[in-house]
Write a structure and sequence with these properties.
Helix content: over 70%
Distance between the termini: 20 Å
Strand content: under 5%
Number of strands: 0
Shape: globular
Largest sheet: none
Length: 466
């Protein structure tokens, strides 16, 4: 196989490094596994908040540019995320079956493939960037276009580091360890927080580079994170012991991972397409106001959704491991526990968002128009929080079983077939204007929940083999 298995950690060491998703108590195991994940997502969100906070000092056009850049970055990230998620699901299934040798072998193949793929992708995307920005209509405002272009060019240098780190984190989480990924994200965020203000505004003998500096700071921190992650997993400190001695690509295995992961990528592309469409609809009105308001509103949404993403990953891993161990009943118990906990949490966060969203907007801008539009967005969007939570974790159970194609079709239906036309019609052909976009988002979250739960109850996802 071209792979040398190193000594495996003892059961006691494995226990210290993660949770027991196959035998542990349902509620507490889910919380213990999900909490570091939630903190990881919050820390990751700080990347965006840090850049937005410092860049906001450059004006409203810079805020709008950050918002567009984040959505394009998310779409770029989708090219590799599906493969990483697919690798993680296969690794988790092998662990559930008790085959750690194959789990480690699969992880090694996934890491090397991601490194090569992400490097090639970054070069291609750099060549296509001007065409992409023109297609989005950003040339309507030359200032927003210029800020977006320079920021993304710098960010592309960090794409290989970002992809490799995500791949390694997905593998480590699949073993039941959510602490190491959290540690890496925390470290890289601290590095970004230190570099961003220095490179944006300058410090002593270091000149300030504005938007370019913000992109360089993020890219540099991502590369450093990848180096640390690689050293951690190679030395076996992350729970899986790997070796790259006599390595060669196992194309049949990679084909199975791609088959599993392609649907996850397409699912995330559906999210990207819907968000980019919403940004395009918002730019129809006043780009510097509406785009900036949507950017700030999304930051509040994503902060609230961190717990949803964390619980979703926990459910996905638990589903995959327990299917491998043929413990179907535990999957339903994990799902019920997640729904119960998230309804209470997201309900609470929705109330906080409705009451205090204005104070968040004022951190980034004193423009009364942007603040007003941000508050209007949040007063509508918060009514979709619980629906988004239930719909999202339902899909994670389905995809964790290996039925990623079914999960992708649900997301595509809700966010592309339903959300985009609704947002367009309500914003362009009714007096709702910008508010029609936000109402369309909430209605699509309701559809996501209804369709997803129907598929979950069908139980067809249980029979998928990977």
């Amino acid at each position: 196989m071209g792979f040398l298995l190193m000594s495996q950690p003892s059961p006691q060491k494995q226990h210290r490094m993660g949770v027991d998703l196959l035998n542990g108590p349902i509620d507490s195991t889910l919380r213990i596994f999900a909490l570091p994940l939630a903190f990881s997502f919050i820390v990751n969100m700080l990347y965006s908040w840090i850049d937005t906070f410092f860049v906001s000092k450059l004006g409203s056009a810079a805020i709008a540019a950050i918002g567009v850049s984040e959505q394009l970055s998310f779409m770029i990230f989708n090219f590799g995320s599906g493969f990483a998620i697919g690798t993680g699901i296969v690794v988790a299934r092998r662990i559930g079956e008790g085959n750690r040798e194959q789990a480690s072998y699969t992880a090694t193949q996934g890491i090397m493939t991601m490194l090569v793929f992400s490097t090639v992708l970054a070069v291609i995307l750099g060549m296509l960037l001007p065409t992409t920005l023109h297609a989005l209509g950003l040339d309507r405002d030359p200032e927003v276009y210029a800020f977006t272009e320079v920021y993304l060019y710098a960010l592309l240098f960090g794409v290989p580091g970002n992809f490799v780190t995500f791949q390694i984190n997905a593998i480590i989480r699949s073993s039941g360890n959510s602490v190491y990924p959290m540690s890496i994200l925390l470290l890289t965020t601290i590095i970004n927080a230190i570099l961003a203000p220095i490179l944006i505004f300058g410090w002593e003998f270091i000149p300030g580079y504005g938007m370019l500096g913000a992109g360089i700071a993020t890219a540099a921190s991502q590369i450093i994170g990848a180096i640390i992650s690689l050293s951690m997993i190679i030395t076996g400190k992350a729970g899986l012991t790997l070796s790259f001695k006599d390595f060669s690509f196992d194309f049949p295995l990679l084909g199975r991972i791609v088959k599993q992961g392609i649907w996850s990528s397409l699912q995330m592309f559906s999210v990207s397409i819907s968000r980019l469409a919403l940004f395009t609809f918002a730019s129809y009105f006043d780009p510097k106001v509406t785009l900036a308001a949507y950017t700030l509103g999304l930051k509040v949404d994503l902060f609230a959704f961190m717990s949803v993403f964390a619980m979703g990953i926990a459910l996905e891993t638990a589903t995959s491991q327990n299917l491998g161990a043929k413990q179907i009943d535990r999957i339903g118990m994990f799902y019920g526990s997640a729904v119960k906990q998230l309804i209470w949490l997201l309900g609470f966060l929705a109330i906080l968002t409705y009451l205090f969203g204005e104070y968040f907007a004022r951190i980034y801008t004193d423009d009364p128009n942007i603040i007003r539009e941000t508050v209007e967005y949040l007063h509508i969007a918060c009514f979709g929080y619980i629906f988004f939570a239930i719909g999202s974790i339902t899909l994670r159970v389905i995809s964790g079983a290996g039925a990623a194609a079914r999960s992708m079709m649900i997301v595509f239906t809700a966010l592309v077939v339903i959300q985009i036309p609704l947002a367009f019609i309500l914003s362009r052909y009714t007096p709702l204007r910008e508010s029609g976009i936000w109402i369309g988002v909430v209605l699509s979250y309701i559809a996501l929940t209804v369709i997803g739960f129907q598929q979950y109850r069908s139980k067809k996802w249980i029979a998928v083999h990977i």
